[in-house]
Amino acid sequence: MSAADTYQHQHLFDENMVQIEMPLIAPELLQGVISNAPKAALNELEQIVSFGCAILSPESQYPDFPVDSLNNIARIIDNNPDIPVHDAIYRLYPYRTFLTNDGIQGIHTLLQTLKIPMPPEEGISHKIMDIQPSAELNKCVVKMNIAAKNVEVEVPHGTSRLAGIENGNRFVETEYQSKLLTEIIQTFAVGELCLVGPKGCGKSVLVFELARLLNQTIEPMVLYQDMTARDLIQQRTTKINGDTIWRDSPLLRAAKNGNIAVLDGIHRIHNSTISILHRLIHDREVQLYDGTRLLRHDRYDQLLANGCTVESMNSKGVIRIHPSFRIIALAEPPNVETGANWLTPEMLSLFMFHEVRNLSKREELHIIQELYGSIGPSFDKIINLAHLMRSAKDPLVKNLSATLSTRQLLRIAHRMSIYSPENAESSNKELNSACNTIQRAFLAKFLPALPRAALESSLRNVGIERVRPTNRNLESSISILDNNLRIGTTSSPLYKTDAVTKVPDILFYDVPQHVRLLEHLLQDFLIGNHLLLVGNQGVGKNKIADKLLQLMNRPREYIQLHRDTTVQTLTLQPTVRDGIVVYEDSPLVKAVKNGYILVVDEADKAPTHVTCILKTLVENGEMTLSDGRKIVPYSAKQILSPDYYIQTHPDFRMIVLANRPGFPFLGNDFFASLGDLFSCHAVDNPSTDSEIFLLQQYGPNVPTATLMKLVSAFAELRSMADVGQLSYPYSTREVVNIVRHLEKFPNEDLSELIGNVLDFDRYTPESLEQVTDVLQKHGLEIGSYAKNELALLRKKRDIQLTIQHSNNKSLSTPKHGKEDPENKPHVGGNTWAGGSGGRDTAGLGGRGGPYRLDKGHNVHQVSDQEKDDVPEHVKEAARAMNRKAFEERLKEIKMSAYDHSVYEEFRIPVKNQIQQLRIILTALQAKSKERHWQKHQTSGELDDNKLIEGITGERTIYRKRANQDPEPGQPQEKPKRLKLVVDVSGSMYRFNGYDNRLDRELEAVVMVMEAFEGFEQRVQYDIVGHSGEADQIVFVDHKNPPKDDKLRLQTIKTMHAHSQFCWSGDNTVNATKIAVDSLAKEEDECDEAIVIILSDANLSRYGISPQRLAQTLTSQEPKVQAYTIFIGSLDNEAQLITKSMPAGRSFICMDLKELPQILKQIFASSVLYQSKL
User: 61-84 b/e with 16+ CB inside 10 Å = b?
Assistant: First the structure.
């Protein structure tokens, strides 16, 4: 009996997985594989088929194995019988990419059971030796040397490649990329493939090198989120006479002409869209919208052999797919932690997969030295930083490391090779220092506080320090002499152009800070980089860009994006003239044609999937337009069809302007999506000196004292906006407008003038009050416009005095004690209730009492040793009395009427903070509730994509904005989960008189309950407590949060009572562990899980080390992000604990005004743990 007819049974998974008893070998599958790989070893083919059958078993609970691709992998093995079995399996089923750690371990168990060894470590040589023509038409033979053995593979060869199109950068081969190229060529020989890797790791470079080697033409197609299946295949357009026709997409053009269709960003589009590729890939045929049909080349040739002619086939609409046609998809890895997994079984069946990792330090240095030579110690520190962050265990740091991709490192190396900070003759050493280079690459100024702290810590670890500025004023000069521009120490000849009307001509004052930025922009421009300027609105991004172009005499085209910008309108402007759709070139196309500078303003306003089509244009100089034309690089020296191809002018550049990402602008994060394609610069408001200089130019007659007041006041307002206390980031634009008005109307009332700037804050009284207070503090008399004045209260702290004293007095039965009608302070003794340092009675600081009682006097604390000396029977009696009093107090809380005045004592001090927190939550919700375009409507705004349908008489040619309905089968939007763990231990009540820690905690809880009201669908929160006698006391359950002030008052009264009556001890660590573990179990039910610990810093008393607490906080990363906020501390214990904790995990909040900003930092930073587009 043959192996193909043999059935074997075995348990395939270990005891932690589902055990499966099933046949290892399916005869029909194995027979098909054997027929495609006659040279392969039978046992290896059996192992591959057995693995697939095991995965396909319903009990395995893994995504389906793509059995349809087994024949392709068999052909690869037949070409190279020495390929490891694991590598062959992994090309079909890249499990490390889309499975969790538990799933990966299960697969490894299966591999061990099937006796499939893991592949050897890298080190086996792979080299392409020669490429020769094949006897077969449109094919070539690639000769490779793999592990000292010669391998020959017949690969499709190009036929109609544009002469001269090369990769923009010279390809520098490394051992890893050479190995990857040989593997890709082997896969390319038999079918379609997909390269999966992080952005900037070199996927596009590998594809271009493959095309160069095989003399192939690339048809790039950038995919975007709202792309339809029709967009992938054909689009409608009109002829000159008004007839409607269908236009082929780049994918179809590649299929007809035998080119490579590169689908860039296949992870972005919807599964329903990609489904149209199934028939094209599996059957090599597809039915088109215009009625024609593409047919596999061998079937087409068979029809010709049977007597059909090419003319008859064309008349019937049957078109041959070229045998050299291939599809290469490019994608970023799915984020398995957030469940955003695009690698579905359907997708697995379409391609064979190759993972592209980030290059190692040695490989990157090799490439950089080949391209730019040895650079210097500053760059060595930068590349050390990149690999330190990539290998970090902290998910926050690891996610930040994506910014320093190989692409970004090459750009930095290119710059430093020309403008070296080590050059002793260079006067702009600070400008090009390693620290400033990293700050620009990460846009560190706009990072949330926690990621910024993590970045600063990483910089210190590799020895990157700030360079102190030296003699800046000498560098801040601009001159034009003999048609040569000089900014600082950087010079460039003026550009000669006939389009003088397109050269900006603006009013600009040479502020030193802006001049230094202009010099840096000029340097980047001269080395060929595209520029990205990011900053708050009103800081002068447009002015700086226009001034740079004015100085260089460069003409520009300008385009402003908005939330309704589409891929089509970005490239072309369609209009209907005489029943004919006419496409007018957009400013983008005009700039590409004529070599102008394209200024893209408000880039963050457009959807990210729209702006991402700029990727191939910036990276390779290629783009396909909506009308079917194609932009090709300048290096395409022979243009086959000038009407079809648009050659990129060598002088074309892009300058992109965008607001800072995140709150309060709520734009899309352009920097996160495409930042590493540009040379990035953060544009900030001018420094104090620069701003005063600027205002003096606009208002030379305005008193300097007034300018100083305005500058200092608005600087404070900006800092408040940066931390989220204000929703509007007051910029230089507002100050300039005020000064220009004062210059023209010097007798104008300053109160009314400034009031006009603040009018939009009238509807948020809390913000208005904050702003007016700041202005008044800086001496700006705004008179009646100020609504309220807040008194500045100075906090006074009593000095703690410690006296060693031995108390030999005996202890009697615990009791409440007598009530002193005059409430005099009582120290020692065992008579009065509310005394201090006594025994037996309720009070503070004593021993043997039944519970704590604070009468508002100074506290005299007895030592822990004396408290421990209390006899056991006295302790038991005290506990019994404690429980009875506590139960009576709980009954009072639940039965008493709502006391508005008591609740207001806790709410009023934090009412501004409640409003600030609600602003943050509103921004969070507004971002998530962004409305989308709904197409195919019978009314609304005319859809540019359906103009042709309108001409033909269709009615559903409109679109309108509405809340997007979930797709069928799409999971419902999940809320964020927040668990607030509060400290209600005895020390909170005991030391409340010392630093008001318990009051602060109750106010913080009120702030959370008030602020989160109305956001239950977006954020669900629990409030649980811990003390010496319990590690999980539920005060608020997320399923039933308090709905009114009475319930909220009951919550804080219960917390207060527990802290007063609970027994001594600490359960901080246990409570943290329970909270973190419980949210980790809810991973599938929430979008994000955050635990926040509110506690005093009284840890050392109970032997709790910061390291132990930190370990507990991070025990469930990245499922749960946990933080601790200390709201009380004896001496500097909180500072010492925070220094010993991981960066960004611990905060000190002695003033509740800081709490909303701390929560904002936590919310903003946690976004970096989530998947990015």
Answer: ebbbbbbebbbbbbbbbbbbeebe
Strands (E), 232-351: 234-238, 244-248, 260-264, 286-287, 293-295, 318-320, 326-331
Alpha helices for 445-540 (secondary structure H): 449-461, 512-526
Q: Which structure tokens are listed for 971?
A: 């999971």
pLDDT of 293 over the 50 cut: yes
Could you give the residue ranges of the DSSP H alpha helices within 814-959? Answer: 864-868, 872-895, 900-907, 911-928, 947-952
Classified as helix, coil or strand, 187 is: helix
Q: Return the number of other C-beta atoms located less than 10 Å from residue 418's C-beta.
A: 12
**Would you say 354 and 287 are in contact if contact means Cβ atoms under 8 Å apart?**
no
Host H or E run for residue 624? strand 623-624
Q: What angle do CA 530, 536, 539 make, to 5 degrees?
A: 85
Domain 157-276+322-355: CATH superfamily is P-loop containing nucleotide triphosphate hydrolases (3.40.50.300)
Q: Where in the chain are the domains?
A: 3-113, 157-276+322-355, 285-320, 361-461, 477-682, 688-785, 812-896, 932-968, 976-1169
pLDDT at 519 over 50: yes
Convert the pLDDT of each residue in 1125-1134 to its tens digit: 887 666 677 7
Q: What are the percentages of helix, strand and coil residues in the chain, rounded to 5?
A: 45, 15, 40
- Rounded to the nearest integer, the mean pLDDT of the chain is 77
Q: What is the pLDDT of residue 1061?
A: 75
Domains 157-276+322-355 and 976-1169 equal at CATH topology level: yes
Taking only the tens place, the pLDDT of each residue in 105-123 is 889 998 988 888 887 766 6
> Is the pLDDT assigned to residue 970 strictly greater than 70?
no
Helix (H) or strand (E) holding 369: helix 361-372
Least confident of 121-125, 141-145, 801-805, 829-833: 801-805
Residue 1048: CA count within 13 A, CB half-sphere: 22
pLDDT confidence of residue 201: 85
SS3 538: coil
Would you identify the CATH topology of the domain 976-1169? Rossmann fold (3.40.50)
Fold of 477-682: Rossmann fold (3.40.50)
Q: Which of the residue ranges 23-32, 138-147, 929-938 has the most confident prediction, judged by mean pLDDT?
A: 138-147
Cα–Cα distance, 87 to 184 (Å, whole number): 12
Sequence-ordered list of residues with C-beta below 8 angstroms from that of 1109, at least 6 positions apart, any chain: 1068, 1069, 1072, 1099, 1124, 1137, 1141
Decide if 633 contacts 648 (C-beta within 8 A).
yes
CB 54 within 8 A of CB 112: no
- Which helix (DSSP H) or strand (DSSP E) does residue 36 occupy? helix 27-36
With 70 as the cut, is the pLDDT of residue 824 above it?
no
pLDDT of residue 28 exceeding 70, the answer is: yes
**Contact status, residue 1104 vs residue 1095, Cβ threshold 8 Å:** no
What does the pLDDT look like over 927-961, one tens digit per residue?
Answer: 444 455 667 676 666 676 666 666 666 767 777 66
Whether 691 has a pLDDT exceeding 90, the answer reads: no
Edge-to-edge strand ranges of the sheet holding 679-682: 556-560, 597-601, 653-658, 531-534, 679-682
**Exposed, middle or buried: residue 618 (CB in 10 Å: 0-12, 13-18, 19+)?**
middle
Backbone angles phi, psi at 85, to 5 degrees: -60, -40
